[in-house]
Structure formats: C-alpha cells, structure tokens
Amino acid sequence: MPEKKIQYVGMCPVCGEALNYGNSEFEDDQLYYEVSCSCGFEGKEWYSLTFGEITSDGEELPLIWEVTCPCNTIVEVEDGCIGECPNCGTQLDDKGNIV
Questions:
Q1: Which pick of 29, 34, 51, 90 has the fewest CB atoms within 10 Å?
Q2: Burial of 13 per CB tally in 10 Å (0-12, 13-18, 19+)
C-alpha cells in the first residue's frame, strides 16, 4: 500500500512547491480555496470553521456573564460590573460573588 504524504498548508501535495490560490467557497461549516500548482496539480484546500467571536464596526460590545444567584436565578452581569437578582434583590459581581 502506498504511503500517504504529509500535507502542509500552502504547499503542493505532489511536488512540495507553493500553491497558487483561486476562489474560496463556504460549504456547511467548512471553507475551501481552489488551489493549483505549476506541476499541474489542481484541488481544494479545506478549512474547518469554528465560532470565534462577534465584533462590531467601531463600537465595542460589552461582555456579559451569566451568574447564578443563591436563589438559583440566572443573572446577566456586564464584565466588571454589579448586577441585581430580579427575584431576591441580591447583588452579584461578574464572577457570581455576593457583594
């Protein structure tokens, strides 16, 4: 059985030279780039996508933490701030500590 070659990003799996990149397409939770090489190889270079973060153009988004009050109510607290439980009035910091 032939050995499978180790594949490296940006390098041709046939000759090892740098790949030329073409168009890219999303397919489900993956992205691929059309690639080609001067040796004649043509194919697709695939990437798996995972959620990173949500950003805003020009406005910083607040980081919100969900903490559990001693009365078992979930309270949303902005990073570095203090929140109040709507059920019992307990004040909690963004780590869930009573203040």
A1: 51
A2: middle
Q: Phi, psi at residue 78, to the nearest 5°?
A: -70, 145
> In sequence order, what are the residues at sequence separation of 6 or more whose Cβ sits closer than 8 angstroms to the Cβ of residue 80?
94
45: tokens are 């270079």
The pTM for the full model equals 0.50
Question: What is each CA distance from 33 to 51, 96, 98, in whole angstroms?
Answer: 19, 45, 51
Structure confidence at residue 68 (pLDDT): 92
Structure tokens at 37: 């090489």
